[in-house]
């Protein structure tokens, strides 16, 4: 078994690189066809990871929506849903969030050493809190997931998590959907934040596939993540 899972980072953004606008309601950047494509990609993975900020802001279920895909997973001896994973630095998580209350698969919360015990008591069994070190180490998180049998991990945001994975050189594949409009609001969240990225002009990603989904464009890159 590899020392970490294969990491697939999935994101939809506007032409100018935003993943939402500044309005209270979540902006839908994708179409029904693309949501179904993402559901199909989820069904090929073992676990799905979002940051705690995404859990708070979007209250996602992170489930496989298609009953047929759920049944096919069960036929292969896999759980119908993915193991859910989140990273937190503040410990600000609500045990009533749909991350915890939906689906039968494990819910894992990686937290700093100094707050892991307190957070575990507050979540009261809603999810398993894992000590990720002080400060949390992404490589240790991935090693722990691999030890739990996670071979393929899907990362779905938000911007801080995208930045952490990409700047750490721990992304193998990037699936980036570009929506045909602009946001143009500097207060809105972007695909990534500032950072030093190994995917540089000297070490570019390799474009493997371009797919048209209506007026959306799916760009599939191999990001050159370090394996070990």
Automatic annotation (TrEMBL):
Q: Which Pfam families match?
A: RibD_C
Q: Which InterPro entries match?
A: DHFR-like_dom_sf, RibDG_C, Riboflavin_Biosynth_HTPR
Q: What is the lineage of its organism?
A: Bacteria, Bacillati, Actinomycetota, Actinomycetes, Streptosporangiales
In which organism is this protein found?
Answer: Actinomadura violacea
> Per its UniProt entry, which superkingdom is the organism in?
Bacteria
Give the metabolic or biological pathway: Cofactor biosynthesis; riboflavin biosynthesis
Record keywords: NADP, Oxidoreductase
UniProt keyword annotation of Membrane present: no
Q: Under which name does UniProt file this protein?
A: Dihydrofolate reductase family protein
Q: Give the Bacterial bifunctional deaminase-reductase C-terminal domain ranges.
A: 5-215
Which Gene3D superfamilies does this UniProt record tie to the protein?
Dihydrofolate Reductase, subunit A
